[in-house]
Amino acid sequence: MIRLGRSLVLPAVWGAFAVTYKLACPLAQAESLGARIVSSAVFLTVGAGLILHVRWALLRELRQLREVAGATQNVLLRPLPPRVEGLALAAGRLSASRGASVGGDLYEVAATDHGVRVVMGDVRGHGLAAISTVAAVLGSFREAAHDEPELPRVLRRLDRALDRHLRERARAEHPAYGGAPPETPVAEEFVTVLLLEIDGDGGISALNCGHPWPHLLSGTARPLTDSDPLPPLGAFPLPADLPVLDCGRLLPGEALVLHTDGMEDARDATGTFFPLRAVLADAARVPPVSPQGVIRTVYAQLLRHTGRLPSDDATLLVLRNDRTRVPPQQRETACAARPAMELSGRRRDERRR
């Protein structure tokens, strides 16, 4: 109320001056040409002052709204540290909604007692309407990544959190609540999710629900695996058995690039898709791969290719292994599906040896 009162002081002063001039000043009552010119100049000055004041007030409110929105977005999709447990990190995001830095894409990296755990996801749709779903999934991951010893149990926690969120949305969007029809009905909502776990030796375990597989950068760029992913979360119930994929090792100096489908689906004016793998291969030709350099190169090429903002959110996350200890085993060339308990038992045996 105090701020509102202060913002009304100057317009009130300008208005009082104009009314006083019109009613009390003899010059305002005169009919001569000179008097009319003076009166016009006075009222023009008052009008210009009011317009400038309103413009200044609107710009101030806009700056405050942007500061609040930026702080909120950074809390939701917070900036990553440059290093986590010997892994160099860099992330970039490009929202399809102009003026928004957070849309339907999500990512997080957490150093836990079970290894470095990574999530990358994509909510159906994009823009501000998807932010509540992003918040539900990320909030669940930030807790489950530390609490759950096995990766499948983390995924089930995310699935339950999404289910609760969609049920709450369905109640809020019911006509009895008087809400406006949603852009994306709850019945059509789903989230693609990729979960990775990187242990102390660089071993990579993965669970994938409908998300694009990462690319491994090691002199060139290739998909981490060609295994078929599970269906996205929210579309179908999770199966009773969730086999964890053992995807070999991330050796020192190598990098993983996680991305959302907005990268591969971006097109130019002729309908040609963005050549993500070729761009990543060019960025990986000269070792060591710089995570920040990969981010800058890919987004520069993406905007050059499309010539405009993409039609879907495009997010990139790069992790480079900066650990100096080289594991004695060579990387496996393909991912092998193993039950979670068997994979965990093998790692415990390796640690004892």
What would you say this structure looks like, in words?
This protein is an alpha+beta fold. It has two domains: 69 residues; 276 residues, Phosphatase 2c, domain 1, CATH 3.60.40.10. Helices cover 43% and strands 20% of the residues. The strands form two sheets. It has a six-stranded antiparallel beta sheet with strand order 1-2-11-10-7-8. It is elongated. The chain starts with a helix and ends with a helix.
CATH class of the largest domain: Alpha Beta
Q: If you consult CATH, what is the topology of the largest domain?
A: Phosphatase 2c, domain 1
Low-pLDDT runs: 326-353
Number of domains: 2
Strand order of the largest sheet: 1-2-11-10-7-8
Give the quaternary arrangement of the chains: single chain
- CATH H level, superfamily name of the largest domain: PPM-type phosphatase domain
Q: Please, what is the average pLDDT?
A: 79
Task: Tell me about the largest β-sheet.
Answer: 6 strands, antiparallel
The secondary-structure class comes to alpha+beta
Count up the helices: 9
CATH-level-2 architecture of the largest domain: 4-Layer Sandwich
Query: What percent of the residues sit in helical stretches (DSSP H or I)?
Result: 40-55%
Extended strand count: 12
| Rg for CA atoms | 28 Å
> What is the 3D shape?
elongated
The H-and-E topology, N to C, reads as HHHEEEEHHEEEEEEHHHEEH
As a percent range, the share of strand residues is: 15-25%
Report, as a whole number of angstroms, the end-to-end distance: 69 Å
